[in-house]
TrEMBL record:
GO terms for molecular function: alanine racemase activity; pyridoxal phosphate binding. Residues 9-225 form the Alanine racemase N-terminal domain. InterPro entries: Ala_racemase (IPR000821), Ala_racemase_N (IPR001608), PLP-binding_barrel (IPR029066). The keyword RNA-binding does not apply. One of its GO terms (cellular component) is cytosol. It comes from Cyclobacterium lianum. The lineage of its organism: Bacteria, Pseudomonadati, Bacteroidota, Cytophagia, Cytophagales. This is Predicted amino acid racemase. It holds the Pfam family Ala_racemase_N. It comes from the Bacteria. Its cofactor is pyridoxal 5'-phosphate. Keywords: Isomerase, Pyridoxal phosphate. The keyword Isomerase applies.
Amino acid sequence: MAFLNLYRDKLRENFEFLKKEFAANEVSWGVVSKILCGNRKYIKELIDMGADEIHDSRISNLAKVKEIDPKVQTVYIKPPSKRNISDMVKYADVSLNSELNTIRWISKEAVKQNKKHKIIIMVETGDLREGVMGDHLIDFYAKVFDLPNLEVIGLGTNLNCLNGVMPSADKLIQLSLYKQIIELKFNKKIPWVSAGTSVTIPLMLHQQLPKGVNHFRVGETLYFGADLFEEKTIEGMNPNVFELFTEIIEMQEKPLLPSGSLANNPQGEVAEIDESLYGKSSYRAILDLGLLDVDPKYLIAGDGDFEILGASSDMIVINLGENPKNYKVGDLIKFNLKYMGALAILNSSYIEKRVV
């Protein structure tokens, strides 16, 4: 049976590293938990190690945070849909917004629930996902700041989430300038300039973060120690908080090439034939997970001495060559994970999740 390990010490090591760096730069931050897909056991690990602000894109996951510790500040990190605003206001203390009508609905619901709801207005800075265009921001804010039971606590942005646009000091300075202009024009304080996600962390580590930027929303770097500028592990952080273990359910020496007439497989692919491999064989193992759980392109061979040949809905086939490690049926094969691979595995109800 396949299972996923979360290593508590590695996660804590990364958490403490980031906590120290943010404190040194006078930046507040929240942990993005969406990769955990609402796994209560893993969310509790975050809270136990000191996460007092947790961000997620699923309201049901924020509800679990509140069940574990109502004192944790919860942040809903995508524009809310009209039909989930009631639950969003109930379980999220803060939300990211870019639509005027949505904010009006939130205000009405906050009045109904007798709650003060905080919002971060998202600003478009070039990646073309969510965000108010800069030249509309003053007018937008003018229509928002006096709505009842709402408090605008920040301006924010997302970069590298859709078109791969990277953050820069210039883009973040512009965001800080918008904050200053709004504060002067409306005589209102906006506490946060929420400059971004894990992709912005290298700017901070290299002392290139504009002074006005004072809030981050961090997921990938916490769980993978990733420097997303240079696609490497940040020195002092651990890349393997998660490891996936899969069981060999068949081990046979088989030809390297299929035989018979070839047509599309269930994924719409036709096998390519390398005629130089005719007559050759290797040891092939079948693993007990498949495309229903994860796309193999997001898996990294933890043990190194094999290649992934393909996958069907419930099985992955790997090539072990001459099987130098003498793997057999029942043995475990380890994988490290890319971010989207971990997200898929954590979303699969068929994979056991463990804490080590």
